[in-house]
Amino acid sequence: MVRFHHQPFTYTSPWETVTSAVWQKYPNPLASHVLTADVIERTVDPDTGILHTTRLFTKAGNMPKWGQSLFNIAPMAYIIEHSTVDPTTKIMTTHTRNLSHTKLMLVVETQRIRPHPDKHHEWTIADTKASVISNTAFAPLRGRVEEFGVSRFKENCIKSSQGLLRVIQRLTGKTDSTVFE
């Protein structure tokens, strides 16, 4: 069974600032589990002006004790992110998924960052959706693994939004920038 999570955040900063902060988010003290963030490929479509980027993240694993005793997996995981930035429509879209441990748990995340519809030049919405599925051979564990994955994803969404806010505040020099759900 697939579990889903949807988490929108609104930043009181313009789209240009928020999307710029995305590229500068790591290293970040609120995301110490992210060890590396490497750009693998970056191109601009000459016809549309859309920026296409592929990044590879290395993250430290944080498996609960019940999982450590059942699964013998590496303490690190690799995550791939494909993103597009359309300067005309002002929409940044990221598609992220884990490359490691996919039989235990596959997490697929899509984030869409766009100007707020009412405060177009002042605020930005980051809309995050994720699906979590476990393909472990032991069927009774699948639900528990998926619940753990969604729970961890929710926690990391909040930390991620706070981490991005720190970068926004550093870029703008404004401490009154905020993020809310």
TrEMBL record:
Any Pfam family: PRELI
UniProt cross-references to InterPro entries, sorted A to Z: PRELI/MSF1_dom (IPR006797), Slowmo/Ups (IPR037365)
Domain PRELI/MSF1 as annotated: residue spans: 2-176
One cellular component (GO) term of this entry: mitochondrial intermembrane space
N-terminal signal peptide: none
PANTHER family to which the protein is assigned, alphabetical: MSF1/PX19 RELATED
Name the record gives this protein: PRELI/MSF1 domain-containing protein
Organism of derivation: Synchytrium endobioticum
